[in-house]
Amino acid sequence: MKSFLMLCSAASCALAIGAAMPAAAQQAPAAAPATAEAKPVPVAELVKKVDIPYESFTLKNGLRVLVHTDRKAPIVAVSTWYDVGSKHEPTGKTGFAHLFEHLMFNGSENAPGDFFEPLKQVGATDFNGTTSFDRTNYFETVPRPALDRALFLESDRMGYLLGAITQDVLDEQRGVVQNEKRQGDNQPYGLVYYKVLEELLGTTPYGHNVIGSMADLDAASLDDVKNWFRSHYGPNNAILVLAGDIDAKEAKPLVEKYFGAIPAGPKSVLPKVTVPTLPAAKTVTIKDSVAATLILRSWAVPGLNDKDAVPLSVFASVLGGLASSRLDNELVRKDKTAVQVSSGIQSMAQLGIFTVQAVVKPGVDPAVVSKRLDEILADLLRSGPTADEVTRVATTKVSGRISGLESVGGFGGKAVALASGELYSNDPLFFKKELEATAKVTPAEVKAAANKWLNRPALTVMVVPGQREAYQEATAVAAKPAEGPKAEPVKGTRGALPAVSPIGDLVFPKVERTRLSNGIELIYANRTAVPVTQVEMSFDAGVAADPSEKLGTQRLTLNMMDEGTTSLDSTALAEARERLGAGISSGSSADRTYLSVDAPSPNLAGALDLFADVVERPAFAPAELERVRGQSLTGIAQELTTPQSLAARMTPRVLYPATSPYAKLGAGSGDPAVVKTITRDDLVAWHKAWIRPDKAKIFVVSDRPLAEIKAALEARFGGWKVDGPAGTKAFAAASQAVTPKIILIDRPNSPQSLIVAAQLTPVDPFADTLAVATANQALGSGFLSRINMDLREAKHWSYGAGGGFNFMEHAVPYTISAPVQADKTGDSIKAIQQQVKDFLTTKGVTPEELTREVNGSTRELPGRFETSDAVLNAMQQNDIRRRPDDYFSTIAQKYRALTIPQLDAAARAALDPNKFVYVVVGDASKVRPQLDSIGLPVEVVPAASLASTKPAGN
């Protein structure tokens, strides 16, 4: 299902940032489909495969506990959900629930210090916290022998927190949260969600953003936050879920031991909420630094427990959620007046927001698109969806749920499904009832629900290109005169943290290799946790294979891959995918181009038929090319308004000589002047040279046996032949001499600056890099790294900062990324310089850091490779870096052999503190004066100048 823009804002706020880099499309030439059309398995059959059996019990203090047993790995997900969210916040206290989520990670009376430290030591994975309108949750997945420690920590912050919250801790996390807010607000369209909530839900407890206002965050006092804890964080206001290598018989005495003595507290009072209806349709226009106008239409609708919730969700998918949706077919494919459309529901416990959006193609009158959007919606309301549309929606939703339930915890695994059902619906299996309802809903029911709720007046928010209004910044919080001695944290009374018994080393899945008859190598691993197959074809191409004279060809080719084959046009292809619950996607790194398919294994045959068609027989239809070109040009324009994209365009230009294939990384999605000239022949030629069997390897993770997988792939790809000469990439041995300097990319009215510091290193990507990578875990990788702890936790100038190596085949750059508040840009560069210099000279890796990183890195391995995605990625990394397939089965002993001198020597051989180039994206009028004292030459460049792909001089 497509995501939509509104939900990319701060609807739900997490404590720490995680980055995911998904792929996206398809491609290729020759030979007819290998098999007769495979029929999809009925969606009801797929629903039967979704199950999470559980046991439950309740402590005397009211703590509800759910236990799900999953013995696939020796790990347990611990997920604690509190019945408190932003809807419980009174006027003047917006952002309190989320602020308190942050405070809960800063130590408790019996576990002082950062909560991430003891979790890292035991090898926790998927640990974080989030806040939404309805709840706050905290979660971690730990090795089974570390469960006692995790339960101790969770119980300590539930029952023994107040003594650890001081004014210093509050001020620190207030600053972090305000930078989290700046980071979201600094994105294109970053302010639109505030307006939707204010105008649509302003009369309800859901009418303000979870992250709150700067003014209310500034005003939060120590007494305020302590009273918030007393009012909402008792055990009787919480749900604890344990999912994994445990059962209720084992769990109950442990939970009693750690949580049983915590007294009950007040229960959150469910606020009174009625679904609001606007008295009349309303349009609000806001200006922003965006490349294209956004039309966002919204209605308030019932919450997830209402009988209309499922029919409305299905209607939203038919209208704009599916790749074959009505809006896609009409506005994007046929009219070509919008470059992106979507529709969906943000379902909350007591109400929801139904949203339709369209990003208008530059040069098109937004009024024309708005009128057509209304016509398409009215037509669907009048005629209703077809049975096939409803089935495709159901299949897509169920397929996504099956894949998501491979994890026991994290942001969306089995623990989340159980906890959310219990909290919102008093039924841990609500998720399955929702899927069953989706599978059974009729077109008539979908039509009736939509007409009931969407014939009411709508709110329209228009975001148009222009200068933003002045940003509401935080104000300095005046320090109150000290009254008596400074309050010290309360000393604990529960004793030391529980010890952790030995944790067994990882047994990585057996990796098997074979070949198809035409020589394509097949690398396979078996995973049986969910009935899903993932296939990824990796081609020796990547951004480095983009034609130097036509940069953007690879990206445009990939964007065209799911826009039709020689037998299916783009709509028919999308519909066929949806009937199978399959995903076909594409993507690229510097060195590789990827085409992938995933599907429920019962539908694998049909999914592979489509995938082969896409890989071998893309149509590159001229009409579709012009449409996709227009979308690509808008995407490039959007890159030029986005801080991360601007930095990504500049950094490679200063690191690599113009003749290096890696300099092409600085083109982003391409030079618009060049992309306008790319022809169909260019796409066909690139595909012919690079998407071919002699450049391909196939990686598969599946619950189906290798023999079956190989036979299926042989039938579809075994006869694929090369056609003409293969493409080549020319890497010269010499690297560019880089002059340290600061390049300031002027992006006016930015409340944050993005700092990117980069240098090329002499690291050999094919050598043993464990020592240098482990050293960097202390310096720049992860929450507890020195760079993050300094900029975020000590100085609270950033929401999150860090650095790492990128192990490409012909170069290994090291890059630090730090989004910081604008007025601290210069000081933040100095802080980064000091941290790096100290680490590489007088303050190398400490014994505590070595112990933490070795313990964490070895103990986390079972959780790190819990999912098929993780295994698939590891298989590919091992292959491209020429490591043995059992690399991760032997890595624990290598970690334990590491020494401080090894780590220090590796870091000092790799990095030079005096060779960084700094790329800063921010408001030059505010930032430029801060840079003079740093001692490096400063160049100021306008953001728009980066549209050209000419390399920067050095």
Written overview of the protein:
- The chain is of the alpha+beta class.
- Helices cover 38% and strands 18% of the residues.
- It contains 33 helices and 26 strands.
- The strands form 5 sheets. It has a 7-stranded mixed sheet, with helices on both faces. Strands 15-16-20-17-19-18 form a 6-stranded mixed sheet, sandwiched between helices.
- Strand 2 and strand 3 form a beta hairpin.
- Helix 4 (147-159) packs parallel to helix 9 (248-259), helix 13 packs across helix 18 (570-580) and helix 18 (570-580) runs antiparallel to helix 19 (604-616).
- The longest helix is centred in the first third of the chain and has 19 residues, at 167-185.
- It is globular, with a radius of gyration of 27 Å.
Q: How would you sum up this structure in a few lines?
A:
Helices cover 38% and strands 18% of the residues.
